[in-house]
Specification:
By secondary structure, the chain is α+β, with helices and mostly antiparallel strands. Helices cover 15% and strands 30% of the residues. The chain contains nine helices and 18 strands.
Amino acid sequence: MKRTLLVALALSLTSFAATAKVTQAEADKLKTTLTPVGAERAANKDGTIPKWEGGLTKPPACFKPGGWYCDPFTTDKPKFTITKANLDQYKAYLTDGQRALFAKYGDSYKMNVYQTRRTGAFPDFVYEATAKNAVTAETGGGGEAISGAVLGIPFPIPKTGNEPIWNHKFRYRGIGIDRWNVQAAVTTGGDANITKIREQVKFLYDTKGITPEQLNNVGIYFMQTVTSPPRLAGTITLVHETMDQVKEARRAWQYNPGQRRLRRAPNVGYDNPGTGADGLRTNDQTDTFNGATDRYTWKIMGKKEMYMPYNSYVLHSDKVKYKDIIKKSHINQDLPRYELHRVWVVEANVKAGTTHIYKKRMFYIDEDTWQILAVDNYDSRLILWRVQESHTVMAYDKPFANPVLESVYDLQSGRYLVQAMNNEESESVEKDFDVAFYDPSNVSKQASK
């Protein structure tokens, strides 16, 4: 019995031990063979993925400061179009989910593939912080705690499966953002139930000059307010995203206008249904993936060259209306742009003793921006269930990558959800919110006005 207890204790301590940091010699590669955030600088063997030359950091002539992110690649034409007829020629570069969409909707589904443009970029101070994080950042608590990192990408040279997910969650997106997130839950007939949500986010982690200790265990403050439809209008979700989720889980509250009270909401997370999504996404599918990772084991499967949604300026255009995007079975595939990019492939499987409606998930994470670009979600029978894509643009005046449409296709029901659209609203604005704005007492006061 004593030996059993000692073994159990050793295993417990091992699961909470910090991961090893990379050596300075490894970190120095961020100045040579790797980009400042850990991507491969070089082109691929046949040149279809070019070398990284600093990304897109100069706004095109069509851009007006504070205005819409116009397309800098208007002269680009598709190199080729993938259809059901020629799928076999390209299937090695597609996810299982993308291939499944061709199988289900092959008469209308297609992918226009353009030349690869490695637009991914961040400010120099993010690169400097990333170089420091490389040798100081570590995870603990079985991967659920992060320490020694601030401002930059936490793990530019990832060693464990949790680390690319942390990189996605804390990729640089400015000091804060005030944006519209328009969702459309689409029926099998192509009708859409629209939900309009205002999101106000403070990325405390991305504050210049802040130290990890000064974060007080909170990396992101998030507030979401539903403005329509009337049955949901006034619903508020408030989240304080913690850095050490073993020490303290995500803090979350919800305000229900009918009850006129802000209540703690421990169900805001994991596989609980997302607001206004008609059951087509879970809470942790906002921003492609967010929140705790403790219900899964995570494994890096390596890197692959794959056709991913990228530089989606046409899809994001303020000249495109929601009705132009939302079609029967899937979005209007004339609008998205796909390119060949290298992605980190991470496999997540539900841990024994825990539950989630997705038993297995495959994540495809852009090497240049650490944005999750695609996810395949499998049900309890390990049958492919829901397929996600994240369409992004480079906010070239900042710079950082910004999601402009996220899709969730339910292969079993034939329905789908799009979210993060703002084509008919105002453009997203970088904004520095005060931490006090996210105090529950302040939110209650503002909500009751």
